[in-house]
Design brief:
The protein contains 17 helices and 12 strands. By secondary structure, the protein is α/β, with parallel strands linked by helices. The protein folds into 3 domains: 70 residues, no CATH class; 182 residues, 3-Layer(aba) Sandwich (Rossmann fold), CATH 3.40.50; 59 residues, Orthogonal Bundle (Arc Repressor Mutant, subunit A), CATH 1.10.10. 40% of the residues are buried.
Length: 364
Amino acid sequence: MNRLYQIALTMIPQVGGKTARQILEVYPDPEELFKESRKALEAAFGKRAIVDNILDKSILAAAEKEMEFVTKNDIKLLFVDDPDYPQRLKRPDCDDTPVLLYYKGTADLNCSKIVSIVGSRKATDYGRTATEQIVKELASENVLIVSGLAYGIDGASHQAALANGLPTVGVLGHGLNLIYPAAHRNLAKEMVANGGLLTEFASNTKLDPGLFPARNRIIAALSDVVLVMESAKKGGALITAEIANSYNRDVFALPGRINDTYSEGCNMLIRSNKANLLTSADDIFYITGWKRKKNQKAVQQTMFQEFVGEEKIIYDLLLQHKELTIDEISSLCDLSLPKIAKTLLTLELKNVCKFLPGKIYKLV
């Protein structure tokens, strides 16, 4: 099938994914659509504006320009009936499936386990550390990590995946002619080699925040599981969670302290039963029924005892003194209070130490 006409189908004004699929029911080959006469088109669609738009020669001209861009940049086109098209997007519960995707990368978009991770652009140390730990726990399970390449939790998710040898795909709210934010250009290059970049938007699409909810629906639909790591009471992560629930995906949220702004959204999702409680990757495997590889738990327990740097310093102090406050730890080592607090949080998330009343820390 001619790719040029597949692109052209998505460029017809006022034709979204749903209408495009309706057109394909009448014209399964888009090339036939654009070579059809006005009379035949009016017989099929009536005397509507859509007929004028189909016959507009500028549509094919724009498609030719896009095809040049795709070819020059080694971008793969995934049409809705292609075998490599993400099959999760074609499930009956997704009624807004895009008919065409632009993909640059190597990851299998139809692999057996896909986890999407979303959260605040203003991620805290708590959110970043928890994200890194959850991804690390998934490292041996051949999971594809999906996020949106934004600042904050998105970036932390992609970076953690790469650091742990997992493929990671960024779903974009714009064309592949740019990377947004620009600060993530190097990260995007790494992802193309060890995952990929995916979008439904052509390269001539202007950067518009209004398009990000459409991006979020793909993040939700592409996955089996959606993790919300941090979110205020309003934000894109909550939108993604709502969409994921409507698609019958398993949604999880990281709990936080009741007075933390960027945990309010997560706590609300858990309280309203819109998300499962997330404390470790074990929660994901329990709810989904995914099977861990043999001896995985034993490997993790061994891994958690292999401490270096600040973790080893604080672990050794807690091992020696049994219970310590953060001020007492500070008086016993040369680490700054922020560094101690962050390291203690990491050890908490690894289930190595716990926080007790009186601001006391002790080993589990």
